[in-house]
Amino acid sequence: MPCFELSNMSKFWKSIAITLAIALAMQMSGHARAQSTPPTGIQSPITEFGAVGDGKTLNTTSIQKAIDQVASKGGGTVVVPEGVFLSGSVFLKAGVNLHLDKDAVIKGRRISRTTRR
Questions:
Q1: What is the pLDDT along the chain (117 residues), one digit of tens a residue?
Q2: In 1-117, which ranges are E strands?
Q3: Domain regions of the chain by residue span
């Protein structure tokens, strides 16, 4: 028999119990911890691949090139520095982490097939 029965609890207490269960599961799995520094290993800033954080330049190709290079070297971290970087869809690969520095933003943009670069 369970230690408590959800069907007998008020909606308020049910939501509290569910929230606590989710928070506990996240804490135990490590998802609740924020990283203050990027992981160790190879670190490649997207600006080294031509990305510009001006909020106007489309950086999809530069970001993907950084991801691809880090993956080809066995993994590491792609670093997004301070700035607003416009991008279409990018594809992370196994062993590649994405780290956003303080005040870094990747702003998604829908890209038509004719404007893709």
A1: 455 555 555 777 767 767 776 776 666 655 444 555 555 678 999 999 999 999 999 999 999 999 999 999 999 999 999 999 999 999 999 999 999 999 999 998 776 666 555
A2: 42-45, 54-58, 76-80, 83-87, 96-100, 104-108
A3: 42-108
